[in-house]
Amino acid sequence: xxxxxxxxxxxxxxxxxxxxxxxxxxxxxxxxxxxxxxxxxxxxxxxxxxxxxxxxxxxxxxxxxxxxxxxxxxxxxxxxxxxxxxxxxxxxxxxxxxxxxxxxxxxxxxxxxxxxxxxxxxxxxxxxxxxxxxxxxxxxxxxxxxxxxxxxxxxxxxxxxxxxxxxxxxxxxxxxxxxxxxxxxxxxxxxxxxxxxxxxxxxxxxxxxxxxxxxxxxxxxxxxxxxxxxxxxxxxxxxxxxxxxxxxxxxxxxxxxxxxxxxxxxxxxxxxxxxxxxxxxxxxxxxx
Length: 288
Fold this sequence. Notes:
CATH class of the largest domain: Alpha Beta
GO biological process, one term: carboxylic acid metabolic process
Number of domains: 3
Distance between the termini: 34 Å
Radius of gyration: 25 Å
Strand order of the largest sheet: 4-3-5-6
Protein name: Tyrosine decarboxylase
Cofactor: pyridoxal 5'-phosphate
Keywords: Decarboxylase, Lyase, Pyridoxal phosphate
Largest sheet: 4 strands, parallel
InterPro entries: Aromatic_deC, PyrdxlP-dep_de-COase, PyrdxlP-dep_Trfase, PyrdxlP-dep_Trfase_major
Structural class: alpha/beta
Oligomer: single chain
């Protein structure tokens, strides 16, 4: 959090041994940033919700190569005010009514600050025991809030991981199901694996399938209609699944959705869930 003094673009060599995490320097500069953020939120509704900038506006404002000399925090924040804020869609503005609900909060900002400040890595228990254990506790909290059975919890035979996005969670579930399917398929054959979704499923599912190695021609997108409120009905889903099996393919994964991005549709999970159970396939629920 430290900084180097810079006069006329010349670095003060006496500060080359500066502690980059100097506590007092962090305290001073953090106050400046917090004031900047607070001022932004106090005035956020004065900005047009949608940016009025033209494509590539920012490239014309910034240097072609990275600066070789440091700048003061004040200069950086002034650049943010002049060049970045005008190019934002102000998601947290009370005037913004599209896509997803605003999720900004004082608690959220301060939590992110704490998390970033500790800057630890949680890839194993010994790397940071508190990180691993807190994740398992919070994951169980969520499972209990959703009334999931004990088999889904760390306290049972399950567990989970806190992902950075719904797209990451979707990919993780898909790869897990793919590996299970390949273990059952003798001999293993990726070309036989088929996944199903509706035409309201988020586009991230198609991308996840591609990353997981599923052929685009094996991605089944089942049409929905206003008659079902754009939810995926079990009958056409089962018909598609049976047709794939008759063709010698292996349907192994259904991505259902609770609240689609495009229409807010809620797939009938109970009815849909019965279908894959009959054919040894997995179900993932995108409920983000």
